[in-house]
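Worked example 4.2. Below are the chains of a multi-component assembly; read each line carefully before continuing.
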Amino acid sequence: MKAPDEQHGISTFALDVYFAQGKTGNPTLARHLETCERCKAYLSDLETMATTAPAPSMLVSRSSSAPMKRPLLRWAGAATVGMVALTAEFAWFAMSGDREGERDSYVASKGEPGVQAIVRSEGRSQVWDGKRPLRPGDAIALRASCEGFAHVAVVTPSPSDGGWSRLFDGACPRGSEPLPFTLVADDKPGDERLAVVFSAARVEDGALRSAARRGDRTPEIWVVHFSFPKAASRP
Amino acid sequence: MPTPPTPFQEAYARFFPPIRAKCRRLLGSSADAEEVAQEAFVRLWQAGTSGPELGHDSDVRTVMAWLYRTCTRLAIDALRRRLRSPRPEPASDSEDRLPCAVALEDSMAARSAILALHARVPGEELEAVILCRVDGLAHAEAAEVLDVSERTVRRLLERFDAGAARWRKEFTS
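Applying the procedure described above to all two chains together yields the following structure tokens:
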């Protein structure tokens, strides 16, 4: 087996860099492409993939610019708003083994807090892509990046009084640990909605509801809204 | 007026297709590849200022190397999870075409060896083998991605080959 430097070919890495910089900046590679059908086809595949790429799973920009107004809904494309019916099951996903071998050295930043949703459906856990509808029975775990906040609460709209109910409340987890609970989607129509509220310390109910309703984003409290569309039912 | 994309969104649009393709070369399944590629971008997002600089003036090569390194490690984790939670190896739905520097049979042979040995050899060896033989990087490029010397890359490949030879001997004896 020969490495590309032994074969004098253009490596995948070089092609990938060329693609990412808009197919410019490498005259040697451009000349190579004039005669190499395989490399041309490879780049063509990447262009096709670019048109079908899913939305990024991190739903909040890490930009340090001014806070964005409800970027989650924009990224998720979940425009409809419906009734929430979540069952809080205080149980861990069977994910502890999944995290073995991950390197926490990747995680270190000062910026905005963010939340990643992980959906467990039919025995498989996947990072939510921002648009895939939930099916009844699908379980959702949340991974929070607290970025300086010490406390996190998860609230969901309360159908009885139009307010928000606290589903989870606790200290921000270390590293990339998911919050220690799961939510299970039911078969009722409408979207599943929830809000994750970051703060320096535990927030009393009234203030928490107000912050969730307004979607506050200040140095003291930071709210991230989620809206999960739901599929009608399992086939 | 539409909101301009953030540096992260822009990076995602530019880098996600090659990173997903890279993951698919190793993992075989589009769904698994997409999951791992997405996770690599989560890590990029989480890395914040300690990660590579993003934006118009960013060094594309540096960002690509960071993503290559990260998704290679995540893909190794995914392979090892398959071993811990045995389920059928997903049928390869990869119809990606490979560039001329990568011979399909060599890439497949390397992938088979990785699948056989991934639980027995150190991650560093797997990283070097994946980059050089599945992805078809030159030794210098693999060294750049892994942030080690070319000599170290060669040594890692030699160790992996020695381990593969031992495994074949055990398997055939």
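Take a moment to check your reading of the output against the notes. Confidence is low (pLDDT under 50) at residues 86-94 of chain B. Residues 60-84 of chain B form the longest helix (25 residues).
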